[in-house]
Amino acid sequence: MKKIILLILLIIFTALLKAQDQLYNLINNYSFEDSIKCPYAQGQVEFAKHWIAPVTISSPAEYYNGNCSGGLGGAFSTPNAICGYQIPKTGKAYIGFHGVAHAKSKTNIDKDAREYIETQFIDLLKINNNYYINFYISLADKSGYAISSMGAHISDTLIHKNSDYKYFPLPTQIQNIKGKIIADTINWTKISGIYKAQGGEQYITIGNFNTDSLSDTLCINPSAWLFESAYYYLDDVSVYDITAEAGRDTAVCGMLKDSVQLGSHGLSFCKYQWSPIVGLGNPNIATPKAMPSVNTTYTLTVSFADTVFTGAAIDTIYTSVTTDTVVIKVDSWQLAVSSSKNNICTGESVVLTASGGVLYTWNGGQSAENITVSPTANTTYTVTGTNTDGCSNTTEVVINVNQPPNINGNGNLSICKGQSTALSADGCNSYIWSNGINNSSIIVTPTNSTTYFVTGSDNNGCTAMDSVIVNVINLQSPVINLGKDTAICIGDEVTIQLPINDYTYIWQDSSKLNYYTVRDTGLYIVRATNICGSFTDSIHFREDNCYCNVDVPSAFSPNGDRENDILYLRGKCVENINFYVYNRWGQKVFESHDLSQGWDGTFNGKKMDMAVFVYYLSAETSSGEKRIIKKQGTISLIR
Fold it and tell me: N or C: lower Cβ tally within 10 Å for the chain?
């Protein structure tokens, strides 16, 4: 079980390395998976994105894609292609072309007939750089012939003709080994080599660039469907730059223990070796991190070996060893920042100065050497500087902002003219008032309303100001008079009314209204207060001889039955009678000032309907000690 897991992990790891390598393959659509259209007939190689047929006079090469139905009967799908069964090397697509079209032909029209495919590199090849080029082919099992002459031509111009479909007499920079017949119809055969670029090349053309007579043809199946042809499938075309690229000379900032990545990119099939190894994270990878402590020249050696096998025999070994150097300069420099002062009070400004570089960027966006700031709270200012080598460094400075002290001015805000009042302040260490006195408290006697300012300072030297307004007003101490002691009948109410002004009142039971309703005998005390002082008065209510009184019936029935037809007041020894009756709309319908004058239930000579009426009654006793009687209530008129 462990072996199976290890095998699976190895397969996954190998696939990841291959996918990583493909990022640096100079061939677009290297395995022909990307299509412009689905193929359905012969000669549709250009349906494979980025690929063309350089010979267009006759039927060009074919495109097979397993993601498509592939025309009638799936002839141009995979793996059951029209020219023979073959599983793609990668993915589901490949190209098919004639290496030799008419091996037996003796006529000039068919002799040396060929098909080629061509594409443009992603980038131009660099002069004197080594490139590893490989592609895979497999003989279609319906071919009658096999050949050894198969290669690739690298050019700086597009190869194209439409005059005939003869072979291109062009040199091949990548060529299968002469005499090695490619007759395998099951497996894929790799054709590869190393090419040293002249510089500026941008096209690759794949096919047979020899005549029929020089193509090492071998008849393998004279009864095959393509009995005169050597028809091949093509997949996985790759071009890799395997030249050592150590990177550009650069500088690192030694004070920051800065590091830099060396090299360009890595390929899984190349060997990388850096020297010296001092300051390198891993000297055996393509792009190590370098953090030297002194100026260092690093040398990169890239080794590559490509072996081509035929069975158990090694046909050839291609090798490439290239070197390149890079100089890493260690720049030891310091960036500094200073401030005119590090502790300020709110509202103050401070100048910050950076030094040691040539370019500066502050965290507030400024790019000057000196900046002026006015923080309102403790703030950390960060500056990034760059020197002439392009090294950058960052440092910071903290400005502490002391908040103003919390000063509070206190005092009597309103006094009477001629009075004095004490004003005080707290929350600070020292104080000075607007009248020039240096003390936390002062005594003032203003003749007019005055605003007094006080400025306080704390231990940090920060200041704050507050003010106290003293209003001088022309007022007298309160004067009230509850009157002489008097009497009250048990059950009666007497309201003591006091004026509404700037006085505040407090009665013996702590009530604070400007009136008091007396319902019992006893001593009643009230204290009136304003800003100028207070005054207290009292009145005593004793029990009175209460036979003098007046009452109002609650109902009468003026229906002519001589029973309760007239509403009369009932009372004795009362005078100064004021009796008023109102309907529900507030209209006065009756009034009387005499006990003998009653209401017959009419108004303006008309009988009133049944209703409830409101009355108000006031009278004075005419015997004994004078007292006032006040009553109100309702009367029901019934018919």
Answer: N
> How far is residue 155's CA from residue 173's CA, in Å, rounded to a whole number?
10
Placement of tokens 């490949």 in the chain: 94
What is 294-360 written as a DSSP string? S-EEEEEEEEEEEEEEETTEEEEEEEEEEEEEEEEEEE----EEEES-SEEETT--EEEEEESSSEE
CB 54 within 8 A of CB 205: yes
The strands making up 430-433's β-sheet, listed across from edge to edge, are 414-416, 463-473, 450-457, 430-433
CA angle 11, 13, 17 (to 5 degrees): 115
Residue owning tokens 């005998």: 521
pTM value?
Answer: 0.57
pLDDT digits (tens, 9 = 90+) for 306-362: 876 554 455 567 688 899 999 988 887 788 888 888 888 888 889 989 888 889 999
Residue bearing tokens 């260092």: 296
Distance between CA atoms of residues 252 and 245, nearest Å: 19
Amino acid at 135: F
Residue with the two structure tokens 């071998």: 218
The answer to whether 608 and 601 have CB atoms below 8 angstroms apart is yes
Distance of alpha carbon 581 from the chain centroid: 78
Residues 6 or more apart in contact with residue 477 via CB below 8 angstroms: 530, 532, 533, 534, 535
First to last CA, the chain: 116
Look-up of token digits 């980038």: 123
- Residue-wise pLDDT for 516-544, tens only, equals 888 888 899 989 988 778 889 999 988 76
How far is the C-alpha of 287 from the C-alpha of 247, rounded, in Å? Answer: 9
Two tokens, residue 303: 């080794």
- Look-up of token digits 């005169």: 228
Instruction: From 60, 58, 66, select the one nearest 38 (Cα to Cα).
Output: 66
C-alpha 394/C-alpha 379 separation (Å) is: 16
Q: Write the single-letter amino acid at 235.
A: D
CA torsion 111→112→117→123, rounded to 10°? -150
Q: How many CA atoms lie within 13 A of 80 on its CB side?
A: 8
**Strands, E assignment, 458-548:** 463-473, 486-488, 494-497, 504-507, 515-518, 522-530, 533-543
* Integer Cα distance of 419 and 222 in angstroms: 137
Dihedral through CA 89, CA 91, CA 95, CA 99, nearest 10?
Answer: 0
Return the amino acid letter for 298: Y
